[in-house]
UniProtKB/TrEMBL annotation:
Organism listed in the record: Polaribacter dokdonensis DSW-5
Source organism superkingdom: Bacteria
Classification of source organism: Bacteria, Pseudomonadati, Bacteroidota, Flavobacteriia, Flavobacteriales
Pfam families registered for this protein in UniProt: GFO_IDH_MocA (PF01408), GFO_IDH_MocA_C3 (PF22725)
Molecular-function annotations in GO: nucleotide binding
Residue ranges of domain Gfo/Idh/MocA-like oxidoreductase N-terminal in the record: 2-118
Protein name as catalogued: Oxidoreductase, Gfo/Idh/MocA family
Ranges of residues in domain GFO/IDH/MocA-like oxidoreductase: 156-217
Length: 327
């Protein structure tokens, strides 16, 4: 078993602590949280061992799970990597792309592995169809959330949209050519609603909408590709595939058929892939353990996390350009 320690015992940190304690692939050594009162409460309530400093915790483990505010990701990662520790780091990987690149470089220099917590890659609805997504040419995402003060220290792009950016980058085998975006601040000092159009060199276009002041929660992505439409509901954990194929000569009377102006008939087929329920956070943590033990590339590598942040920052830069044009 790999000895693991958690940096940060906030809302998500407590979830990580519980799951790591339950995991058969990790030996949870303890945690560090700079807020002494919170650390004391977590220890008293759950019995986890609290360390007095980041370095003491790092020295005691093989793997460091970084679940701290984004501003401290680089400092925590640098300390852990320089002591030869593998790192699991929550999304976004860092505050800036430069910091993310530095984390990648350090991990390579010190021969340690790293994974970024883009948990939607492990959502069972996406896992059920990811192998069916073949060369999509249009993608549409909606990620809407009711207002929650937690997370408003960063733009909605880094808080919510980055999940969909990572999913899209993992599904499109092409480089990003251009990004257009706009964002609006309603409650926070940073944009609460954003829309982005990401264009790829192969012609694929992705349209993303994110909001953290919605009246209801929604996390849906639709992939359109030749002869198929794939829908993923990350919230309800449901998937659907709609296929369009040449209609057979002996059509069933209940078949759904479309006919174009040339008289070509296409039949529509509906598939509901089997979705195997899981705990996505536990899955991402345990697959990272597998990558360390088996010396394989983590499913969401430091490179993947860096590229998601790079595109997210491109989206945010579009907001700044838009403001400059207004002024």
């Amino acid at each position: 078993m790999l000895k693991v320690g958690v940096l940060g015992a906030g809302h998500l940190g407590k979830i990580h602590l519980r799951l790591l304690k339950e995991s058969s692939k990790y030996d949870l050594i303890g945690f560090y949280d700079p807020i002494k009162e919170n650390a004391k409460n977590v220890t008293e309530q759950f019995g986890y061992t609290s360390f007095d400093s980041i370095d003491e915790l790092i020295d005691a483990v093989d793997v460091v799970d970084i679940v701290t505010p984004t501003l401290s990701h680089f400092d925590c990662a640098e300390r852990a990597i320089k002591k030869g520790r593998h790192i699991f780091i929550e999304k976004p990987i860092a505050k800036t792309v430069l910091e993310a690149e530095a984390i990648k470089t350090l991990a390579s220099q010190y021969h340690v592995k790293g994974q970024v917590g883009h948990v939607e890659r492990f959502n069972p609805a996406f896992k059920a169809v990811k192998d069916k997504i073949k060369n999509p040419m249009f993608i549409e995402t909606h990620r809407l959330a009711e207002f929650n003060p937690r997370g408003t220290d960063v733009p909605v792009v880094l808080d919510l949209m980055i999940h969909d950016i990572d999913i899209i980058l993992s599904s499109v085998d092409s480089k990003v050519k251009n990004v257009h975006a706009s964002g609006i601040s309603v409650i926070s000092e940073t944009p609460d609603i954003a829309n982005a159009r990401i264009e790829f060199e192969n012609g694929c276009v992705a349209n993303l909408t994110a909001s953290r002041i919605s009246m209801k929660n929604m996390r849906k992505t639709r992939f359109f590709q030749k002869d198929a439409y794939i829908s993923v509901n990350f919230l309800s954990k449901e998937s659907e595939i709609v296929r369009i194929q040449d209609a057979p000569e002996d059509l069933d009377e209940f078949a759904m058929v479309l006919k174009n102006d040339e008289g070509v008939e296409k039949q529509i087929y509906f598939e509901n892939p089997e979705v195997t329920n899981n705990n996505a956070i536990l899955d991402e943590l345990e697959t990272f353990a597998d990558a360390i033990v088996n010396d394989t590339t983590p499913i969401v590598s430091l490179h993947n996390g860096t590229e998601a942040l790079r595109i997210a920052q491109w989206v945010i830069d579009c907001f700044k350009t838009e403001e400059d044009l207004k002024n």
